[in-house]
Design goal:
Strand content: under 5%
Order of helices and strands: HHHHHHHHHH
Structural class: mainly alpha
Length: about 240
């Protein structure tokens, strides 16, 4: 861990310590920190095998700090959320929506980095797949949020959901995350288009399929059937 990443960790610990001191709703603070207790150690431990760039670590730290602020006040009571409410003329505290948007905006780049470096994706798929995964994780979080809220006390569940009476809150949160991810990936695409002379060629090639290349599903299924028949013949021969 270099000095910069150590500094990011210290910033996160400082914000977490502040958020843990006299939270507005202690039960909701604990529920919100389930994500922190799982995700942060995972990022630190996997750093031995896959190190993100400093840009990605910065974006992840910022996203987690925004989450900690929501955990301290509860998402429906964050002061900045009321400021956003006035700016947008909304009828609810907008911090929850802001954090979901920020999640998409800040996490799309690290997800793209994973696809580029581990899966070696290129061209169009280096933008579409991060968007797809970011939206999928947003949906998974909404499902987890629903199940956790259903198992705790109604008061803690309502504070954890932060829906503020909006029956479409989950769908709007996912839309906000998707918009944030789209903006982030469009910015990355524009930067690559500006500075990478092979950007257009790589985008076109990412839609191409090599000639005479069979569909992998059919190829794999055919090979599996042939292997099964071969094993049966060998088994029958051994019994004789």
């Amino acid at each position: 861990m270099n000095r910069y990443r150590l500094g990011l960790l210290l910033v996160f610990i400082t914000v977490w310590t502040w958020a843990a001191i006299r939270p507005l709703f202690p039960k909701d603070w604990l529920l919100e920190n389930l994500l922190v207790f799982l995700f942060v150690p995972l990022i630190i431990l996997t750093g031995r095998y896959f190190r993100f760039s400093d840009v990605s670590y910065t974006l992840i730290t910022l996203a987690m700090c925004l989450h900690l602020i929501g955990a301290h006040y509860t998402y429906a009571e964050v002061p900045f959320g009321f400021t956003l409410q006035r700016w947008f003329g909304a009828d609810r505290n907008m911090y929850d929506r802001f954090v979901h948007f920020s999640y998409g905006l800040l996490f799309a780049y690290p997800v793209r980095e994973v696809f580029l470096r581990l899966a070696r994706v290129k061209g169009f798929w280096g933008f579409y797949l991060p968007l797809d995964v970011t939206l999928s994780l947003s949906a998974v979080y909404e499902i987890i949020e629903w199940r956790v809220a259903a198992r705790v006390s109604p008061e803690a569940g309502l504070a954890f959901l932060g829906s503020q009476g909006d029956i479409w809150d989950a769908q709007k949160d996912m839309l906000a995350a998707g918009l944030g991810a789209c903006i982030a990936l469009v910015v990355v695409a524009l930067i690559n288009w500006k500075w990478d002379p092979n950007f257009g060629c790589e985008m076109r090639e990412s839609f191409g399929i090599q000639e005479c290349e069979p569909p992998p599903g059919e190829k794999a299924m055919g090979q599996a059937v042939r292997n099964r028949v071969r094993r049966r013949k060998l088994t029958a021969g051994s019994h004789k």
